[in-house]
Amino acid sequence: MLEALRRGEFLGLSWAGIQSIFRKEIIQLLRDPYLVMFIIALPVIQLMVTGLAVQRDLKHIATVVVNYDKSSASRELLSDFQNSTLFDLDQAASYQDMMQKIRNGSYRVGIVIPPDYSEKALSGAEAPQLNIIVDGTQGTIAKTIVDGASQVVLNHNRKLLYNAGLQVGESGFGAGVNLNAKVLYNPKMSSAYYLVPAILAIVMHMLTILFTSFAVVRERESGTLEQLMVSPVKVPDLMLGKVLPYAFIGFLDMMLTLGVMVWFFNISISGSFFFLCFASMIFILTSLGIGLLISVLCKTQVQAIQLTMAIFLPSLLLTGFVFPLEPMPWFIKIVSYSLPLTYYLEIIRGVVIKGVGGAELMLQTVILLAMAIGMLGASILRFNKQIN
Questions:
Q1: Model confidence pLDDT, tens digit, residues 107-153
Q2: Which of 148, 178, 141, 177 is nearest to 160 (CA)?
Q3: CA count, 13 A, side-chain hemisphere, 248
Q4: Please, what sign has the CA dihedral across residues 311, 326, 337, 270?
Q5: Statement: the pTM of the whole predicted model exceeds 0.85
Q6: Residue 139 in 3-state DSSP?
Q7: How far apart are CA 186 and CA 146, in angstroms?
Q8: Which domains are assigned to the chain?
Q9: For the segment 170-207, what is each residue's pLDDT rounded down to a tens digit?
């Protein structure tokens, strides 16, 4: 036993052998700067980015106002909403204009002040009505908005009572302002309506990226890439030939998961199913393009997996999948709006929950199409550069 310890051995283990293998692994690791950067920098960057994205309270909610009263009393009430920092107010030309802005996703909240607001407020005979219309697509945010509006109205009523020197129930402003909140699209504020389509989107996003992230790097590792390079097949043909089979598979998977959403979760598709299929196909091509670019950039399948995982966490936390985009800092929003999942989440939630179609979601669709063309084009250019 003592002799074995003197030789650096214990329980069949050799300290010299462990030391030599340890030194070899460290040297091999340091020869791969990409892996070192991934191991050290990525957790720090992702923690900082996602921490900034999720730690902020909900503020500055885009709110559109229709003020039919246009009196000083109504303007004072709207000023209280603006000063709360929860609502950022803009004007709408009409009630129809306001509803369209909420429907296309430009605003989450609508405030309607009726024409008799100041008359009732000044007479004190009847409480004036304030109508709040909330996009209930995301139930938790809708509840926060309704609670925030109730608090603003409560504070406004207290201020009116204090200024008038009255108690509740007395004449003048004693009746206060009544808040009538209406939640659209998801009146029960159920989280399933919001999360299930989003889960479908993020699962398909990561699955389709994985489809093609090994497409070229697998050929390189197996030694068949050189054979493809000397074949008469052109690079664009090679890239598209690798993408199209997975596009077909991805589309079938998308149809299958949509069927599960409708049948198992009882979430119906309120809008155009054909537009959703069209937008989904563009989204699948975008995701496949990302995977193909990863495959072209990486030299090994391990690197491809690492880069895919580096994309996964921002897509999960910075695209509106769970946390709203409004309170995020502007530099985090730049990252959010550079990710294709951000736009597809708006599309699938808009079609499934709101019932909107191509007219309202054309911008998101065009951006996804531009991303798909850009990713596939970048993959072709990068692969051309590697073989020339």
A1: 999 999 999 888 877 776 677 889 999 998 888 888 889 999 999 99
A2: 177
A3: 5
A4: positive
A5: no
A6: helix
A7: 13
A8: 1-31 (no CATH), 61-184 (3.40.1710.10), 191-387 (no CATH)
A9: 444 445 788 999 999 888 777 788 888 988 999 899 88
